[in-house]
Amino acid sequence: MEWLLVMVLVLEFVCVLVGVAFFTLLERKILGYVQVRKGPNKVGFLGLMQPFADAIKLFTKGLVYVSVGNYNIFYVSPGLMLGLMLCIWSVMPWVGGAFDFSWGVLYFLCVSSLGVYCLFGCGWASNSKYGLLGAMRGVAQTISYEVSLAMILIGVGLMGFSYDFSMYGLMQNYIWFCLVAGPLVVCWVASIFAESNRSPFDFAEGESELVSGFNVEYSGALFAFLFMAEYGMMMMMSLMSVVMFFGGLNYFYLGLLMIILYIWVRGSFPRYRYDKLMYLVWKSFLPLVMHWLVLLGGMLVLVVWVL
């Protein structure tokens, strides 16, 4: 059974990395049409080989060696960030999947919170002021929005009577959670944008302000690791949205709409102001989610008392 488990995990990780490659192609195509131009269309038929050309370019490119900085953390952090992204994918409740997490929500929160250390390690160890500023922004942003994410997950756990993601699909056979908890869906979508450091909340990588932010000193394979970790997390969050609010993985194709939403928002909205970003989570999302939890908890107590 151990070798079968390993094979399932390896197959899942390979599919995730291939999906990341074509996610980048989809993003460049859609952004091209948003900006009234063609996306990649020269490498292969309709540009389908462009992700593989980019991968070959990145993994054969030379690395930048930092002469003044923390050498070990600088080189370990990108690989660790990619590894954490793949570990989070193991909680996805596939039919016949490798794992069945009865406390999957807690596992998801624990592993995703470790990404903060990798992000800060990348910026701090590079000994670059731009990298350090981007890392500090990213850490403050990620920690702030993890609070709202945790509260939303608790709310979904109350509706699903479980912290097991595989149970949410069964509970939504009668009604989708998005129809019961609309405000939670809005807060969740904005929070995963901020948690993934994506536009309009891409302050850790503010190119117009910080020259690529925390990853400014990375190149070649190390930059590819950071790139794959970011896009893999976006795919994970998109499918997690379907699991939590839109009927479970029986409707996994809705995850593609969430991925397109990521790209559409990037091509349509300017970067948010940093102080407003913090006000949004602490003064808007957190009170709204906590009030909703009180209302939902009261309704559940009432239902249990009546029954």
List keywords for this structure.
307 residues; mainly alpha; 12 helices; ubiquinone
Please sum up the structure shown.
The protein has 307 residues and is mainly alpha-helical.
What portion of the residues fall into strands of 2 or more residues?
under 5%
Helical/strand content category: mainly alpha
| C-alpha Rg (nearest Å) | 20 Å
Number of helices, counting only DSSP H or I runs of 4 residues or more:
12
Uncertain segments are none
Q: Describe the biggest sheet?
A: none
How many angstroms separate the termini? Answer: 44 Å
By DSSP, the count of extended strands is: 0
Mean pLDDT: 84
Structurally, how many domains make up the residues? 1
The ordered H/E elements are HHHHHHHHHHHH
Percent helix range? over 70%
- Backbone shape: globular
Protein name: NADH-ubiquinone oxidoreductase chain 1
Family: Belongs to the complex I subunit 1 family.
InterPro entries: NADH_UbQ_OxRdtase_su1/FPO, NADH_UbQ_OxRdtase_su1_CS
GO cellular component, one term: mitochondrial inner membrane
Draw up the topology in text:
Layout: H1 2-34, H2 50-60, H3 71-89, H4 104-125, H5 129-160, H6 165-171, H7 177-180, H8 182-195, H9 207-210, H10 220-245, H11 254-268, H12 274-306
Helix pairs in contact: 1-2, 1-10, 1-11, 2-10, 3-4, 3-10, 4-5, 5-8, 5-12, 8-10, 8-12, 10-11
